[in-house]
Amino acid sequence: MAMGILGAIVYAQLISVTVSGRVQPLHPYLNGQEKPISSIFDTSNYGILQLNNGLATTPQMGWNSWNFFACDINEKVIKETADALISTGLAKLGYDYVNIDDCWSELARDSEGQLVPESKTFPSGIKALADYVHSKGLKLGIYSDAGAFTCQVRPGSLFHESDDAKLFASWGVDYLKYDNCFNLGIPPKKRYPPMRDALNATGRTIFYSLCEWGVDDPALWAGTVGNSWRTTDDINDSWASMTTIADLNDKWAAYAGPGGWNDPDMLEVGNGGMTHGEYRAHFSIWSLMKAPLLIGCDVRNITSETLEILSNEEVIAVNQDALGVQGRKVYAYGPDNSYQVWAGPLSGQRLAVVLWNRGLKAATIMVKWDVLGLESSISVSVRDLWKHEYVSENSRASFSARVAGHASEMYIFTPKLIHSAS
User: Fold this and answer.
1) Which of 85, 261, 268, 382 has its CB 3.0 to 4.6 Å from that of 91, i.e. a possible disulfide?
2) Which residues are catalytic?
3) Which pLDDT tens digit goes with each residue over 23-74?
4) Distance (Å, rounded) from C-alpha 166 to C-alpha 157?
5) pTM higher than 0.85, yes or no?
6) Separation CA 337–CA 270 (nearest Å)
7) Integer Cα distance of 358 and 372 in angstroms
8) How do strand 207-210 and strand 175-179 relate by DSSP bridges?
């Protein structure tokens, strides 16, 4: 049952746990059933503003056409991608949205003012494509824009929200990415809610992904509007872009949670612009940040190295953890603060920890318990999520590991002795 905003705030204040002498609000969605292990991960701003349409209890997973194909899309590509998600085993791991980005429609609406799929590239229409994707046990996503035109100058949905939402629902669409181009200078807070209302009015449950690029700090208001919201400009397939975007998204960690997630844009893993180590760091940090995991490469021709990264079940499990707390940067030191510790609490009183080397040279990175909010006397087991093995059964006070340049290592810390607050 939906909780009012005021009620959620009061609930978050009343239901709390004291750890190491500090008081930490609990996520209202947890109903007091599980207490976070550490007090340093502020969650006081999430769980308060959620859309609560039953979707996005964990971050969305799937594939999007833009990062690899841009406008070079057609129904054959979409069908083959759906097939590839099945044949690679990615669909079984949770990658179930097959999302068409910009350039699917004709350059103008028809005589009745309706959007029309481009006849050359989508001759069978979107409904037939949705039926095909659904037959595979997957879901179909589509793209539009909260402006007069899309970013590639196709018709936008501004002032056409009701008609377009009805059309998408009639086609069997499951997901809408809603962009921010040609917005006529109208504030995002005014342009995005009408499509939420229109989608809800269709009676079909459609995931609503706001893509306003973080222009108007959507983390502060979009929780009542959509299921995820872009906190940054577009990513590109480079280390510089990926790291910059991770830092920008980190600012809003306290505002994400079940029902609505911060979105630092789609994955570039496998597109060729970064090294294997850089892509592994990209996937690790996106998973830790509870970012949407939307594959952006050509799944039909995926390499074994790329598949290994995207199909790491232990890392995916961090992203999909039911506790729903976004991991964040908790400590940085060394040259230009390039030795970084990112961490976040998980269900079962565990912590996910990423040691991230942003420098070019290999280095030993140490994490001390106090930056994780743990008492130094607590003993933890440490599981390496990329080696798939325990690397320590009894670490106390600190843990360190050698990390290659432009790379990361990812772990789960499980404390041996947990003293639950009464």
Assistant:
1) 85
2) 179, 234
3) 334 444 444 445 555 667 877 676 555 566 889 999 999 999 999 999 999 9
4) 12
5) yes
6) 28
7) 20
8) parallel
